[in-house]
């Protein structure tokens, strides 16, 4: 493709989540002219963090937290390539079973998950490292894609951003949640019926979940011989874990909230009070001395969650049919998001696998 036209690109990546950024990074390194369009005002997609107001350093993950290096080669390779560090999930000490309304939570030893690790600095370290390697001007925020259309041997893209309203690219990579892409983007060209069905039925992992983060000055539960892990039938958190940084700082707990999205959205203040009540019930009065509490309700994020996700079971996505990984429109249109992976769909490792697949497909096509 000629590079004399300012809005003509070799590849346009739709979505600046982990898959989209990793795809852009690989293709940029291969010498292609790449544009990334992000509908939101921030990058990262489901990877997001509470940050220090002075240094902007990530303090706690609001999205995914873990990778499993013994079983997830793609994520492990990217950790090494980007020069990031890992540390094991803290699981020393007893867990708490918060089961019976009439009884205090009881402590028990619970088995951990072999190899479960956290990225030092959180998964936002992936986003910061990769985006920092892309040339200035590669990523455009607040640029929702309205339509894509095959025109001759290229694809025309129209966006909501007046500064980059029309774009031409040889290849387009749709790196947004599949249901969101189907609802938000007009594909001016026939998509296979089978693919349409897959897009509408494919759940976005954790899209309808809410994650509570509670920051403390010290991880006091560790000094009590507790791991920070909670398994609960009483809620509002159905499970909780230690989210403290390496060397105990920052000190934090996180938990998944077990209430439906419509109840969460209408009872924010009551929910915060119930969260602290649960922590006090489990850990004692020290739990009241938190420095910050944040609830990230992904179900309210229109760039992540659809009504179908809110109405769904929340079950982990299984491997999707091959049609979602097959290039379309003369091999110029690609779907690549974590849920399209054949291994670890929906997880960090799946995001990297999907980026590598899209990259290899495009580089093979233009070779």
Please tell me about this protein's structure.
The chain has 367 residues and is α/β, with parallel strands linked by helices. The chain has a domain at 1-47 and 123-205 and 309-367: FAD/NAD(P)-binding domain. The chain has ten helices and 20 strands. It has helices at residues 18-29, 73-82, 124-132, 178-184, 193-201, 220-223, 261-266, 268-283, 307-311, 348-366, and strands spanning 8-14, 34-37, 49-51, 58-61, 66-67, 86-88, 94-98, 106-108, 117-119, 139-140, 145-151, 154-159, 166-174, 186-188, 210-216, 226-232, 237-242, 251-257, 292-297, 333-335. The strands form four sheets. Strands 1, 2, 10, 11, 12, 13, 14 and 20 form an eight-stranded mixed β-sheet that branches. Helix 1 packs parallel to helix 3 (124-132), helix 1 runs parallel beside helix 10 and helix 2 (73-82) packs across helix 10. It is elongated. The model has no long low-confidence stretch (mean pLDDT 95).
SSE layout:
Layout lengths: L7 E7 L3 H12 L4 E4 L11 E3 L6 E4 L4 E2 L5 H10 L3 E3 L5 E5 L7 E3 L8 E3 L4 H9 L6 E2 L4 E7 L2 E6 L6 E9 L3 H7 L1 E3 L4 H9 L8 E7 L3 H4 L2 E7 L4 E6 L8 E7 L3 H6 L1 H16 L8 E6 L9 H5 L21 E3 L12 H19 L1
Parallel strand pairs: 1-2, 1-13, 2-10, 7-16, 11-14, 13-20
Antiparallel strand pairs: 3-4, 5-9, 6-9, 7-8, 11-12, 12-13, 15-18, 15-19, 16-17, 17-18
Helix pairs in contact: 1-3, 1-10, 2-10, 4-5
* Helix share, percent: 25-40%
The count of β-strands is: 20
CATH class of the domain at 1-47 and 123-205 and 309-367: Alpha Beta
Q: In the CATH hierarchy, what is the superfamily of the domain at 1-47 and 123-205 and 309-367?
A: FAD/NAD(P)-binding domain
Task: Please give the alpha-carbon distance between the first and last residues.
Answer: 13 Å
Please give the count of helices.
10
What is the CATH architecture term of the domain at 1-47 and 123-205 and 309-367? Answer: 3-Layer(bba) Sandwich
Which regions are unreliable across 5 or more consecutive residues at pLDDT < 50? none
Mean pLDDT, as a whole number?
A: 95
Structural class, by secondary structure, is alpha/beta
Describe the biggest sheet?
8 strands, mixed
Q: What series of H and E elements makes up the topology?
A: EHEEEEHEEEEHEEEEHEHEHEEEHHEHEH
Strand fraction equals 25-35%
Which fold name corresponds to the CATH topology of the domain at 1-47 and 123-205 and 309-367? FAD/NAD(P)-binding domain
Global morphology:
elongated
Radius of gyration: 21 Å
């Amino acid at each position: 493709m000629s590079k004399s036209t300012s809005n003509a690109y070799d590849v346009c990546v739709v979505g600046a989540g982990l898959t989209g950024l990793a795809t852009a990074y690989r293709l940029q390194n291969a010498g292609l002219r790449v544009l990334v369009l992000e509908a939101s005002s921030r990058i990262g997609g489901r990877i997001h963090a509470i940050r220090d107001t002075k240094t902007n350093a990530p303090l706690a993950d609001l999205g995914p937290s873990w990778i499993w290096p013994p079983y997830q080669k793609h994520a492990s390779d990217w950790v090494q390539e980007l020069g990031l560090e890992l540390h094991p999930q803290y699981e020393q000490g007893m867990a708490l079973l918060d089961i019976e309304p009439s009884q205090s939570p009881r402590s028990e030893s619970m088995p951990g998950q072999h190899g479960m690790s956290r990225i030092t600095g959180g998964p936002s370290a992936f986003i910061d490292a990769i985006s920092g390697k892309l040339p200035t001007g590669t990523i455009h925020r607040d640029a929702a894609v309205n339509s894509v259309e095959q025109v001759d041997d290229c694809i025309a893209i129209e966006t909501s951003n007046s500064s980059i309203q029309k774009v031409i690219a040889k290849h387009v990579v749709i790196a947004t949640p599949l249901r969101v892409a189907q609802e938000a983007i007009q594909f001016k060209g026939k998509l296979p019926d089978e693919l349409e069905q897959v897009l509408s039925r494919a759940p976005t992992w954790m899209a309808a979940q809410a994650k509570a983060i509670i920051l403390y000055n010290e991880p006091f539960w560790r000094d009590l011989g507790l791991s920070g892990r909670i398994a609960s039938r009483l809620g509002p958190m159905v499970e909780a874990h230690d989210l403290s940084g390496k060397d105990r700082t920052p000190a934090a707990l996180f938990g998944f909230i077990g209430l439906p999205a419509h109840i969460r959205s209408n009872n924010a203040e009551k929910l915060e009070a119930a969260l602290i009540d649960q922590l006090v019930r489990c850990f004692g009065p020290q739990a009241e001395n938190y420095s910050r509490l944040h609830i990230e309700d992904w179900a309210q994020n229109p760039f992540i969650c659809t009504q179908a996700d809110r109405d769904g079971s929340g079950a982990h996505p299984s491997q999707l049919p091959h049609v979602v990984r097959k290039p379309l429109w003369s091999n110029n249109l690609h779907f690549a998001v974590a849920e399209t992976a054949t291994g670890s769909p929906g997880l960090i490792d799946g995001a990297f696998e999907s980026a590598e697949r899209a990259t290899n497909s495009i580089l093979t096509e233009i070779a």
